[in-house]
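Quick bug: Katanin catalytic subunit A1 like 2 output formatted oddly.
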Amino acid sequence: FYNSVLTRHLFLCCLCQSQLTNGKVLNHDAFRGAGSDLDHTERLLKPLGALFGTNSELRELAAVISKDIYLHNPNVRWEDIIGLEDAKRTVKEATVYPIKYPRFFTGIRSPLKGLLLYGPPGTGKTMLAKAVATECNTTFFNISASSIVSKWRGESEKLVRVLFELARYYAPSTIFLDELDSVMGHRRSSSGGEHESSRRVKAELLVQMDGLARSDDLVFVLAASNMPWELDHAMLRRLEKRILVGLPSEPARQVMISHWLPPLSSTGGVELQTELDYQTLAKETEGYSGSDIRLVCREAAMRPVRKIFDTLESHKQGPSDMPDIRLETVATADFLEVMAHTKPSARNLTLRYTAWETENECV
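Here's what came back:
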């Protein structure tokens, strides 16, 4: 165990030195007056012994949780996320501005402690979390169910407690709880089929969230869920803001298609031309999520490539003697034909999300 801690410590030292040597600091655009990303890596160098002392069990659990701290820049900027302006504004208000402009977040304006992003799969919830990790000068914990669930009795709730203690220790911190419904569904009695360990984990999460609400620690919980109606009501109360990350609007869909299939692009030395009616395609893709549209664009771009595979396979010379092949132009009809075989993944859930938003909306 101590070897693993030493290895991680040396890695972070090398990371900091590399940034200094190259004259580069990750996330340098996020805050001008609140320190650079180097401060973030320096925070991670703080010894765990100062937090857990000689308690070897908690130090081992801390090493497990530390594996889910982002050490590298996901390289997703706010401007990389098409649309979702309300969600971006709210996330910035909760994570960026309290650190950048602390004097405006005191008293009744104290920073939010929890925010829920919900909506159909593939609409940008995880992208928003990656933008937080990229743009914000905070220690970012990327937590899923596997991070805090253990087969050993009593260890799961200890992992939850250690997670929040580490977040306070390395503050300012952001805890991203992905697929929250997988760990914080409605609580039921043991006779209702829920295991005792599951109830204990949920209880510990609620206790820790309450602890954040009563403290001035710069620790923020960002949660994401595809099924918000499955979430326990006590957790919803602690997530003060609830933002629907819905399907993209028509203007956003048009920007997406023109971004992924521009009139002329060249990657890997292969040129691709398109002749698309972007306005028509934006209307036709109603009900498609961002990931659905990206998939359609990929398949449309692959159509002219598939037509030349036989020629490429019959070529007997080496790759350096490959004949000069010009791909066919991708037309609007190609895009529509791909759409006919690529159905939207979440259209049937739209009404359910809208109904849930009406009952649980939080401005």
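Actually, after a second look the formatting is fine. Residues 250-315+322-345 form a domain with the Helicase, Ruva Protein; domain 3 fold (CATH 1.10.8.60). Closing.
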